[in-house]
């Protein structure tokens, strides 16, 4: 029994530009067409999409090797929309993180400044007044240098009026 493939609707789908839809009735979709349709609906980085494509191919072709037809494997996997939605949710953390807007100070920078100034103050006092060790003096110096570096970096960011 030969399967009949019907292509309907045009949307971006990889290189071909054709989106194959599956609905109730006599329309059938091959495994590769199903995977192309799912991948076209993913909003994920290319590296993740490539990995998902390989996993889907492996999973669906395992059904075929177990004795199912391509149509049965596609039906068992579920609808294209459901699969794409689940995959987008599952791999949402792989999307690129948005950078802080240009000109805004990183949130941790003031805390770095406070920490380095405290380190310089306490270790410097310990080294000078309480017979501290060379390590205390070195840490005080590191704190002082970091305080200067972070203060200079903070001056780059001007307060918006």
Write a short abstract of this structure.
The chain is an all-alpha fold and 161 residues long. It is built from six helices and no strands.
Q: How would you describe the overall organization of this protein?
A:
The chain has 161 residues and is mainly alpha-helical. It folds into 2 domains: 97 residues, no CATH class; 47 residues. Helix content is 57%, strand content 0%. It has 6 helices and no strands. Helix 5 packs antiparallel against helix 6. The longest helix is centred in the last third of the chain and has 22 residues. The radius of gyration is 29 Å and the shape is elongated. The N and C termini lie far apart (73 Å).
N to C succession of SSEs: HHHHHH
* Largest sheet report: none
Poorly predicted runs are: 1-26
Number of domains: 2
Percent strand equals under 5%
Give the C-alpha Rg: 29 Å
Number of helices: 6
- What distance lies between the first and last C-alpha atoms, to the nearest angstrom? 73 Å
Total beta strand runs: 0
What's the mean pLDDT score? Answer: 76
Shape field: elongated
What portion of residues is helical?
55-70%
Structural class: mainly alpha
SSE diagram, text form:
Layout: H1 31-40, H2 46-65, H3 70-77, H4 80-90, H5 109-129, H6 134-155
Helix pairs in contact: 1-2, 1-4, 2-3, 5-6
């Amino acid at each position: 029994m030969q399967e009949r493939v019907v292509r309907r609707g045009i949307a971006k789908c990889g290189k071909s530009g054709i989106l194959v839809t599956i609905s109730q009735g006599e329309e059938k979709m091959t495994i590769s067409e199903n995977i192309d349709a799912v991948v076209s609906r993913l909003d994920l980085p290319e590296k993740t999409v490539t990995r998902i494509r390989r996993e889907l191919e492996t999973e669906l072709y395992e059904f075929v090797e177990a004795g199912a037809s391509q149509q049965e494997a596609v039906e068992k996997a579920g609808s294209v929309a459901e699969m794409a939605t689940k995959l987008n949710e599952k791999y949402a953390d792989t999307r690129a993180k948005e950078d802080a807007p240009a000109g805004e100070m990183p949130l941790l920078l003031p805390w770095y400044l406070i920490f380095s100034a405290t380190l310089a103050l306490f270790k410097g006092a310990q080294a000078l007044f309480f017979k501290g060790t060379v390590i205390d003096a070195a840490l005080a110096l590191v704190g002082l240098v970091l305080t200067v570096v972070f203060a200079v970096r903070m001056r780059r960011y001007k307060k918006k009026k």
